[in-house]
């Protein structure tokens, strides 16, 4: 989640920001005391597959639920596809299988669904809850990832919950871009990186695992829920010493590393406000608007990030931002070339796996 | 025993595939499986048999076969797990045949075989050899009849069958060839080749040693019985008889193991099923477990189903086909084809539309094309692109390994026969539900008049009869 400075994004705000950073740059670099801003009251939800297997259900009841859920899924056909490019029934059936995998402790039960006997199944959720979850999936179009509380992203399994953007497969490519840069510049591997608007912490964790012994990632988010969930994910991958979480808007929590960042990455909200209402139901109805809505043309936060990048990155530092597509990419490159007084070099537009111009990357001069 | 496991695995596999993709497979029953993906409403056959469907066919380069899938069976559901000692690999081959001695060291003076001479036939103190026992044609009585000649005869027959199945004479020739290779001074100039040679040598030697030891044990027990009778030692006689009986029971298992002694038989495997008609739907199932490939290879070929289609409102009879391929997953690195990342084109599922934050889809199908060969692999069942890519890569690796093996086999006549068995074959079995009811294997003529049980997965008989027919017919 990110807070967008929706009005007067850099014309008035930015100089102020610069001024304050000058002051705070006198601070010592990243101290662990700054973690005190982590909310302690927020307890992230445990994903289904990590919940204790404390429920027990007759196999026949599980099968009844499964049959019901499957027929519900099948009845959808291509209705969702036609209405808003949502999932079709075959995809829903696959999700149903995954839901079973996460809910049932002993996977071998899944192969015995055909011959029902008196067997008891140990579960991580009771059948009543499964009914309710699947109903939410089909009737409310609640994203599958919120149902099971996790998303498989790259080789990570990340906890997600309502209020936290579900990481997208397109974003995986940011990690490839960073890996590429790291392989060519070992020095950056030992530096401090920042992931702004980290959400579930996906990018920060993936980068954290690629960095060297001295390398670190600071992940920020304005949303306390996101920070709590990201912290949980960081802990699950034992990266507490590598990835540091800070709550705050964009560069605000980074004042003490101004001009020192080796890398800066972000997947900020970039959907134009007018497009929000037409989004796929899973996205528009359930995911946090603050993580999606990028203002009138969708670029409020992207511009803010570009301006900040000039002052935050050290010379030779790398940045990669995800955008809405070709138009935003071109706009951004044009802005970086012509309105940042030559702060950047090596600007590039990179496509995602679907061939859409998705990322803008470059280096601080 | 093991066949039941295969049956269950097979059934589970299909059931698993069903969960993976409801449109492709709507029931765990093989019948429905065949039907659903290969139903051919026209009822004609001939041109619909995908005899030209090779797994490396370039015509499957379109992303349209996105229905291809890989299902992974957790290894826990695998086959009967048993290690055949003969399949151990010996890196430092021991040329000497060290026959096992029991307590009967008394007879060791008879064994003049302790050198490197493998050709000497072992015999009892009075010169009886295994061949001799066979020639005597002693009647084989029921196990409960405590008659040593009956036991000995049964065991000797088993040994004969085992040798036949191991292609004993070929094995000895091959072993000699490998020994010669191993003795070459420049062997280790090519470590990969050397490793391969020494592994094969070790494996063949292990098999041979095991049979030899079994023969030796038989002869020793016979010696013991004769000695016991001379000495009038009833305890020793009954003990030796018991030992013979144990051997006799054991030998049945060894016969079975000998059926699965092929180079790749112990591997896990992928089973691929593809529809004969219409679309290009294909399902790939991974089967983990000891001898998965050895058993599953029996199913390679085209399966034909004749019945009144439940999907035809006019209740007409339909003929449909499914082609099955089985690909071993090589355990050791020596046969693995090196894949260059730059030779790959990786295609991913596209939700269409703007993508990125606009779309939330759990569909993360990945398709990999190996550009130089046109071999492709697709996976869509895993939960991330990363996992789908890894699974698809595993399939691709196996397919390329298989391609490479075929290529090597064509250069090496020794293996050609065995390899034609594992590439796509022609029609192997028909399942007729109407107008009469019968499942018949066209290779062995093995038939069953209850198609339902077979379609439910009871294919043990077919596998066993195929394996024994294909090996036992070979003249030594």
Describe this structure in words.
- The complex is a heterodimer of chains A (365) and B (476).
- Helices cover 37% and strands 18% of the residues of chain A.
- Chain A has helices at 13-24, 59-76, 79-84, 89-103, 127-139, 144-148, 172-184, 186-189, 202-208, 224-236, 281-284, 300-312, 326-338, and strands spanning 55-58, 120-123, 150-153, 156-159, 192-196, 216-221, 243-247, 261-266, 313-322, 344-351, 357-364.
- Chain A has 365 residues and is of the alpha/beta class.
- Chain A has two domains: 13-44 and 161-364, Rossmann fold (3-Layer(aba) Sandwich); 48-148, no CATH class.
- Chain A has a seven-stranded mixed beta sheet, sandwiched between helices.
- The relative contact order of chain A is 0.14.
- Chain A contains 13 helices and eleven strands.
- Chain B is an alpha+beta fold and 476 residues long.
- Chain B has two domains: 2-83 and 265-472, Alpha-Beta Plaits, CATH 3.30.70; 85-259, Methane Monooxygenase Hydroxylase, Chain G, domain 1 (Up-down Bundle), CATH 1.20.58.
- Helix content of chain B is 41%, strand content 14%.
- Chain B has twelve helices and eleven strands.
- An eight-stranded mixed beta sheet of chain B has the order 1-3-2-5-4-9-10-11, with helices on both faces. A three-stranded antiparallel beta sheet of chain B has the order 6-7-8.
- Chain B is globular, with a radius of gyration of 26 Å.
- The two termini of chain B are 28 Å apart.
- Residues 1-118 and 412-424 of chain B have low confidence and may be disordered.
- Chains A and B meet through α4 of A and α1 and α9 of B.
């Amino acid at each position: 989640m990110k807070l967008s400075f929706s009005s007067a994004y850099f014309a008035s705000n930015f100089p102020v920001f610069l001024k304050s950073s000058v002051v705070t740059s006198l601070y010592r670099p990243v101290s662990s005391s700054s973690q005190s801003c982590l909310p302690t009251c927020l307890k992230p939800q445990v994903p289904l597959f990590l919940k204790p297997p404390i429920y027990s259900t007759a196999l026949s009841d599980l099968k009844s639920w499964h049959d019901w859920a499957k027929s519900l899924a099948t009845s959808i056909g291509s209705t969702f596809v036609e209405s808003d490019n949502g999932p079709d029934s075959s995809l829903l059936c696959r999700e149903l299988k995954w839901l079973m995998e996460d809910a049932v402790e002993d996977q071998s039960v899944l192969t015995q669904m055909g011959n029902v006997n008196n067997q008891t199944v140990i579960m991580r959720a009771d059948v009543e809850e499964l009914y309710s979850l699947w109903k939410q999936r089909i009737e409310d179009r609640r994203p599958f990832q919120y149902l099971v509380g996790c998303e498989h992203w790259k080789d990570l399994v990340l906890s997600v919950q309502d209020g936290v953007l579900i990481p997208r497969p397109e974003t995986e490519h940011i990690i490839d871009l960073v890996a590429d840069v790291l392989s060519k510049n070992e020095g950056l591997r030992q530096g401090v990186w920042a992931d702004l608007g980290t959400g579930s912490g996906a990018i920060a964790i993936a980068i954290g695992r690629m960095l060297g012994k001295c390398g670190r990632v600071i992940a920020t988010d304005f949303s306390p829920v996101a920070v709590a969930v990201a912290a949980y994910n960081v802990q699950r991958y034992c990266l507490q010493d590598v990835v540091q979480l800070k709550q705050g808007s964009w560069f605000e929590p980074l004042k003490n590393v101004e001009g020192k960042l080796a890398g800066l990455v972000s997947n900020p909200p970039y959907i134009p406000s007018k497009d929000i209402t037409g989004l796929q139901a899973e996205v528009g109805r359930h995911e946090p608007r603050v993580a999606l809505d990028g203002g009138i043309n969708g670029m409020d936060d992207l511009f803010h990030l570009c301006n900040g990048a000039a002052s935050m990155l050290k010379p030779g530092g790398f940045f990669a931002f995800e955008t809405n597509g070709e138009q935003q990419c071109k706009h951004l490159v044009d802005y970086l070339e012509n309105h940042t007084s030559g702060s950047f070099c090596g600007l590039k537009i990179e496509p995602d796996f679907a061939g859409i111009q998705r990322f803008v990357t470059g280096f601080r001069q | 025993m093991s066949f039941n496991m295969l049956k269950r695995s097979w059934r589970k596999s299909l059931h698993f595939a069903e969960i993976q993709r409801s449109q492709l497979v709507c029931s765990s029953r093989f019948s429905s499986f065949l039907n659903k993906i290969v139903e051919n409403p026209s009822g004609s056959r001939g041109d619909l048999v995908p005899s030209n469907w090779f797994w490396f066919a370039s015509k499957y380069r379109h992303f349209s076969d996105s229905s291809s899938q890989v299902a992974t069976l957790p290894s826990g559901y695998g086959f009967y797990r048993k290690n055949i000692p003969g399949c151990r690999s010996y890196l430092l081959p021991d040329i000497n045949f060290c026959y096992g001695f029991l307590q009967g060291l008394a007879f060791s003076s008879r064994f003049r075989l302790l050198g490197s001479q493998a050709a000497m036939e072992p015999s009892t103190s009075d010169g009886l050899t295994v061949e001799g026992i066979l020639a005597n044609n002693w009647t084989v009585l029921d196990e409960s009849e405590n008659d040593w000649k009956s036991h000995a005869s049964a065991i000797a027959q088993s040994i004969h069958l085992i040798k036949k199945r191991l292609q004993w004479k070929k094995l000895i020739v091959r072993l000699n060839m490998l020994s010669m290779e191993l003795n070459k001074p420049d062997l280790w100039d090519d470590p990969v080749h050397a490793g391969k040679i020494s592994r094969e040598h070790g494996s063949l030697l292990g098999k041979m040693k095991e049979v030899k030891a079994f023969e030796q044990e038989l002869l020793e027990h016979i010696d013991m019985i004769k000695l016991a009778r001379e000495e009038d030692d009833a305890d020793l006689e009954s003990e030796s008889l018991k030992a013979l009986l144990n051997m006799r029971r054991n030998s049945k298992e060894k016969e079975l193991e000998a059926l699965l002694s092929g180079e790749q038989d112990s591997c896990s495997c992928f089973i691929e099923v593809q529809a004969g008609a219409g679309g290009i739907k294909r399902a790939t199932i991974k089967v983990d477990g000891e001898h998965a490939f050895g058993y599953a290879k029996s199913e390679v070929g085209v399966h034909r189903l004749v019945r009144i289609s439940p999907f035809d409102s006019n209740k007409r009879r339909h003929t449909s086909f499914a082609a099955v391929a089985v690909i071993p997953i090589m355990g050791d690195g020596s046969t693995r084809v090196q894949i260059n990342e730059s030779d790959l084109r990786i295609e991913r599922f596209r939700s269409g539309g703007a993508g990125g934050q606009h779309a939330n889809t759990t569909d993360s199908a990945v398709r990999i094309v190996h550009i130089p060969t046109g071999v492709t692999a697709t996976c869509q069942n895993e939960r991330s692109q990363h996992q789908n890519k890894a699974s698809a890569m595993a399939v691709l690796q196996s397919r390329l390994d298989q391609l490479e093996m075929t290529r090597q086999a064509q250069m090496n006549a020794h293996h050609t026969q065995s390899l034609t068995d594992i590439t796509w074959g022609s029609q192997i079995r028909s399942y007729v539900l109407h107008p009469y009811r019968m499942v018949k294997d066209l290779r062995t003529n093995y038939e069953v008049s209850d198609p339902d049980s077979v379609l439910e997965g009871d294919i043990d008989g077919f596998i066993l009869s195929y394996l024994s027919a294909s090996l036992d017919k070979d003249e030594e």
